Amino acid sequence: MTAHANELAVHVRGLRKRYADVTAVDGLDLGIRRGEVFGLLGPNGAGKSTTVEILQGNRSRDEGEVSVLGTDPATGTRAWRSRVGIVWQDESTPAELTVRETVRHFARYYPRPREAEEVIGLVGLGAKADSRIKALSGGQRRRLDVALGVIGGPELLLLDEPTTGFDPAARRQFWDLIRLLADEGTTILLTTHYLEEAETLADRLAVVARGRVVAEGEPGELRERYGTGATVTWTENDGSAREERTGTPTRTVAELMRRFDGEIPGLTVTRPTLEDVYLRLTGQESAR
Ligand SMILES: Nc1ncnc2c1ncn2[C@@H]1O[C@H](COP(=O)(O)OP(=O)(O)OP(=O)(O)O)[C@@H](O)[C@H]1O
C-alpha cells in the first residue's frame, strides 16, 4: 500500500467476495480518513455487512487490497484487534452476569480500557448497572453490545446497524455517544438503514448497491449532486392545489409572484431529501 493509504484509517481497493453463486462484494473501493464518522448506506443484501466483517478481520476476501489502521485485517494481531472496536450483533455474554460485571470483565481484555462506570453511563445503562443481562430488554441488550464495543477505547469503531431495535430516545442518546467519541478523535464507520441517522452523524457517506459504491461524499454534497430540482407548490385563487417540479425554482417563484402580484398563497419549495437521493441511487424509487 502507498503512504497515502496510511493516512487513511480504512483503505479498500477492488474488494471482492463471493459466497457460492452470490457475489456479495463486487469491486468495492473505500477511503475513510482518520477522525471522521463515515456512514455506509445501501439496501438489504448490498454487501455492507460482508464488507464490515472483512474490515474486522472476521471474514476472508477473494480479491482486493484492504488496510485497517495500516494493517491487513487478514493478518491482524491481537494488538491490532485491541485498537479496533467491534459491536457484535449477537454477543454471547453470560446471561447471569450483571451489566457492570460484564463491562468490567471485557475491560480486562484491553491494554488501555475506558472506565467501566463511565461507559455504562455513556450508553444510558446507569440505572441497569446491577441488572442481570437476562433481565435486559432487546434495546438495552444492544446498548450493552455498544458498551462492549467501546470499552477498549478503540481508535476505530466498526458498527454494523448499531441502533436497530433502539427506541427514539435511545437512538438520540447513541448519537450523542458517537459525537462524543468522534470529538475525542475516534474514527467511526457505521452502517445504517436510517437516513436521518446517516445525515445527522456522518461527515461522509457511501451508498453501496450490488456490492460496489455508487456514490460517495458529504450528505449535503450528495443531495446537491444527485438530488437535482425542486418541487414548488401553491394554491390557486379558486382554492385548487398546484405542484410543479422544476430545475429552476427561483424562476418559477418569480413568475408566480408576478402572476399573483405579490404574496403567493400556500407557497412551499422543497428540495429532494437524502432519502429521495438514496432511493434514486439504489434504484428503489418504485418501492416508495
Ligand atoms: N454467510 C453467507 N453465506 C452465503 N451468502 C451470504 C452470506 N452472508 C451474506 N450472504 C449474501 O451476500 C449478499 C450480501 O449480504 P450482506 O449481509 O453483506 O448485505 P448487507 O448490505 O449487509 O444487507 P442488510 O442490509 O440486509 O444487512 C446477500 O445476497 C446475502 O444473501
Automatic annotation (TrEMBL):
Keywords: Antibiotic resistance, ATP-binding, Cell membrane, Membrane, Nucleotide-binding, Translocase, Transport. It is found in: Cell membrane. GO terms for biological process: response to antibiotic. Signal peptide: none annotated. PROSITE patterns: ABC_TRANSPORTER_1, ABC_TRANSPORTER_2. It comes from the Bacteria. Residues 10-235 form the ABC transporter domain. CDD domains: ABC_subfamily_A. The keyword Transmembrane does not apply. GO terms for cellular component: plasma membrane. SMART domains: AAA (SM00382). SUPFAM superfamilies: P-loop containing nucleoside triphosphate hydrolases (SSF52540). It is a peripheral membrane protein. Its main location: membrane. One of its GO terms (molecular function) is ATP binding. This is ABC-type xenobiotic transporter. It comes from Streptomyces griseochromogenes. The keyword Translocase applies. Its EC number is 7.6.2.2. Belongs to the ABC transporter superfamily. Drug exporter-1 (DrugE1) (TC 3.A.1.105) family.
